[in-house]
UniProtKB/TrEMBL annotation:
<protein>
    <submittedName>
        <fullName>EamA family transporter</fullName>
    </submittedName>
</protein>
<dbReference type="GO" id="GO:0022857">
    <property type="term" value="F:transmembrane transporter activity"/>
</dbReference>
<feature type="transmembrane region" description="Helical">
    <location>
        <begin position="82"/>
        <end position="102"/>
    </location>
</feature>
<dbReference type="InterPro" id="IPR037185">
    <property type="entry name" value="EmrE-like"/>
</dbReference>
<feature type="transmembrane region" description="Helical">
    <location>
        <begin position="7"/>
        <end position="26"/>
    </location>
</feature>
<dbReference type="GO" id="GO:0005886">
    <property type="term" value="C:plasma membrane"/>
</dbReference>
<feature type="transmembrane region" description="Helical">
    <location>
        <begin position="56"/>
        <end position="75"/>
    </location>
</feature>
<keyword id="KW-0812">Transmembrane</keyword>
<feature type="transmembrane region" description="Helical">
    <location>
        <begin position="108"/>
        <end position="125"/>
    </location>
</feature>
<keyword id="KW-1003">Cell membrane</keyword>
<keyword id="KW-1133">Transmembrane helix</keyword>
<dbReference type="InterPro" id="IPR000390">
    <property type="entry name" value="Small_drug/metabolite_transptr"/>
</dbReference>
<keyword id="KW-0472">Membrane</keyword>
Length: 127
């Protein structure tokens, strides 16, 4: 394990942020799909073609790919047992991004859950 805790943490946060952006883009793209019912062998090829033509879905996949590459570099610098709990910050980012960009409702129970997650992340970071 290399001694790159500071830069590793920044990379983890960047990876988590990019992954959350990818989630929001995928959801925005999925909202534009024309999903029809029918036999899977008939519906799936059309659905895949729609996805391949959808810039939001392609952008979401790109963000996930870059996030994964950054994650690999970051865990080479930080202990996995410390890095992985920080992934839960993605829930926080997605909650507020879903509210801001998708118009999803955010109630007190969800906010309370996010506060519990944040508390857990702080505990892990202090260890």
């Amino acid at each position: 394990m290399k001694n790159g805790l500071g830069s590793g943490l920044y990379l983890i946060l960047l990876s988590v942020f990019l992954g959350a952006v990818g989630q929001v883009l995928l959801k925005m793209g999925a909202n534009r799909l024309d999903i029809r019912s029918g036999p899977l062998f008939e519906v799936l090829p059309q659905l895949i073609l729609q996805m391949l033509k959808n810039p939001l879905i392609l952008g979401g996949l790109l963000f996930f790919g870059v996030s994964s590459l950054i994650w690999i570099v970051s865990v080479s610098k930080v202990q996995l047992s410390m890095a992985y709990p920080l992934v839960s910050l993605g829930y926080v980012i997605v909650l507020f991004a879903s509210w801001a960009f998708l118009g999803e409702a955010v109630n007190l129970i969800r906010v309370g859950g996010v506060l519990v997650i944040c508390f857990g992340v702080v505990m892990v970071a202090q260890s």
